Amino acid sequence: MDDRTPESGDSRLDQLQRLTVRMSDSMRTDIVLYHGAITQRRLEGHFIGLCRALASAPNVLLVIATSASSADAAQWMGRFLRESYEKVTVYADNSRGSTGALLALGTDELIIIDAETRAALDPSAMARGPTAEEEEFLNSIRPLLHSLDDRFPSMYLKEMLEVLSDVSRKDPES
Q1: Can you name the residues that pair with 65 across neighbouring β-strands?
Q2: Does the N terminus or the C terminus of the chain have fewer Cβ atoms within 10 A?
């Protein structure tokens, strides 16, 4: 199946990669996707090691879809991110029922697309909706975010897209 768009000739992967690089470079940020519950086991088993190995920018944008998370584990995750980065921004996608865990992350900025979830938070939580550019970016990566599972709950987006792009260039039929 050819994934190229008629208007540009670029594949969706190429477009996503360019959009990711633009967001990452303009915000001077690593972009990390995380899907599923925030638990001590998942943090120790995957997330912390991944961040230690790949952190390269001064800031981080954590794009997260979570539910039934431990507030203690979320607090630990947030503390680790704050120790590793100058600024921690979290975009919460489909994270209803996890507002306690999202607040426990203790981020510099919390972006929540769902107005009902934002309204349920204390105004001092510094939560806001996404800008148009952020929403375009976040909508484009949502399918990738929701494809993560327990075996691979998190990834650095820019690096993963580079790998996928290399693979697609070597094997255009895939």
Answers
A1: 35
A2: N
| Residue 129 contacts residue 113 (beta carbons within 8 Å) | yes
Q: Could you report the per-residue pLDDT of 94-124, keeping only the tens digit for each?
A: 655 566 677 777 888 888 877 777 777 766 6
- What is the model's pTM? 0.81
Q: Long-range contacts made by residues 141-147, C-beta under 8 angstroms, separation at least 24?
A: 141/16, 141/20, 141/33, 141/63, 142/93, 144/16, 144/33, 145/33, 145/35, 145/63, 145/65, 145/93, 146/35, 146/65, 146/94, 147/35
Are 97 and 121 spatial neighbours (Cβ–Cβ below 8 Å)?
no
* Edge-to-edge strands, sheet with 154-156: 127-128, 109-112, 87-92, 59-65, 29-35, 154-156
Q: C-alpha 152: how far from its chain's center?
A: 13
Higher pLDDT, 43 or 2: 43
Tell me, what DSSP letter sits at residue 139? Answer: H
The residue type found at 159 is: E
What are the backbone dihedrals phi and psi of residue 106, each rounded to the nearest 5 degrees, phi first?
A: 60, 45
Residue-wise pLDDT tens digits, 18-50:
888 888 888 899 999 888 888 888 787 788 888
